[in-house]
Design brief:
The chain has ten helices and twelve strands. It has helices spanning 47-54, 77-84, 104-114, 120-133, 150-162, 180-197, 208-214, 232-237, 242-249, 292-296, and strands spanning 3-16, 19-32, 36-40, 62-67, 70-71, 87-90, 168-172, 200-205, 217-222, 225-231, 302-305, 308-310. α3 runs parallel beside α5 and α5 packs parallel to α6. It starts with a strand and ends in a 13-residue tail after the last strand.
Length: 323
């Protein structure tokens, strides 16, 4: 698969009370055509900020965002707007992302109107087809967002994201606000749409169970940096970074014989504030394997096996590059 999206050393900070909050601090990654890259980490790790920075909903401070060979940070005006047709987002809170005074038909048609796609009659038919595609039904085209359940509202949000036939979608915690039974339905829909339309996803979540189900590769983020990235099965089989190990250990397991299947590796403390980053490795205050070197210098994301990258002093470096 060819690379569709490449991020190089992305940074995004915010001023907070005289200090600087480093939400995304030197992140590099690739997403290939037709691939889902899962992005996982605790709240406050910078996942959503990274997703919005990729789309330039938040303007990065530094770095490159290369989409299909074009650096998006070099575009503005009409050139950027044209490229944005190929990149969309599905938000965490479906109701908050829909205008309460717009019918769902109007909400889904809005991107088509903004980009001048089709006549009013053609747009209405496009919207009707999208509602059928996501399982809402065209007969509800004149209904309003509050008339639907949370899962239905998310289906409407997905339909709107699909309106311009994008190639890439950021799914920003798209199921975390939904009941577990509804989560499975929305995840199944997103996987079906990925195959049907040839989409690529950045799928952001804090639930490793969801991430494992949807992802081809997984990136683990902690305090603004990616600390491990690997193919899905390899990451769960060989979670090298101590933070990744702790996240996987915390996933509940259902034992076959009623006995515990593993000991949980409980993380000490809570994720520190990005306003006051620890020296050296950002994870060392919570890491059971921390050495003096971990407190002194920050490890770089390095390839330790083919396609498997980790930022940890415990592992020898093979090479450093955009992953």
């Amino acid at each position: 698969m060819s690379d569709l999206l490449v991020g190089k050393d992305l940074k995004k900070s915010f001023p907070r009370g005289g200090k600087i909050l480093k939400a995304v601090d030197g992140v590099s990654f690739t997403i290939r055509a037709g691939e889902t890259l899962g992005l996982v980490g605790e709240s406050g790790s910078g996942k959503s900020t990274l997703g919005r920075s990729i789309l330039r909903l938040l303007e990065p401070d530094e770095g490159e965002i290369v989409f299909d060979g074009v650096d998006l940070r070099r575009l503005d005006g009409e050139a950027l707007r044209a490229k944005r047709r190929e990149m969309q987002i599905v938000f965490q809170d479906p109701l908050a992302s829909l205008h309460p005074q717009m019918s769902i038909g109007e909400a889904i048609a809005d991107p088509l109107v903004i980009h001048g796609v089709g006549t009013p009659a053609e747009r209405r038919e496009m919207v009707a087809e999208l509602l059928d595609t996501v399982g809402i039904g065209r007969e509800f085209i004149s209904s309003f967002p509050h008339e639907f359940s949370g899962g239905q509202q998310q289906r409407i949000g997905i339909a709107r994201a699909l309106a311009l036939r994008p190639r890439f979608i950021v799914c920003d915690e798209p199921v975390s606000a939904l009941d577990v039974s509804i989560q499975a339905q929305i995840v199944a829909l997103l996987l079906e749409l990925k195959d049907k339309f040839g989409l690529s996803y950045l799928f952001i979540a804090h639930d490793l169970g969801v991430i494992k189900h949807v992802s081809d590769r997984i990136a683990v983020m902690y305090l603004g940096r990616i600390v491990q990235i690997a193919p899905r099965d390899e990451l769960f089989r060989n979670p090298l970074h101590p933070y990744t190990k702790a996240l996987i250990s915390a996933v509940p397991k259902i034992p076959r014989d009623g006995r515990p299947t593993r000991r949980f590796e409980t993380l000490k403390g809570e994720i520190p504030s990005s306003l006051d980053l620890p020296p050296g490795c950002r994870f060392h205050p919570r890491c059971p394997l921390a050495e003096p070197e971990c407190r002194a210098s920050e490890p770089e994301l390095s390839e330790v096996a083919p396609g498997h990258w980790v930022a940890c002093h415990l592992y020898p470096t093979r090479r450093r590059a955009v992953v």
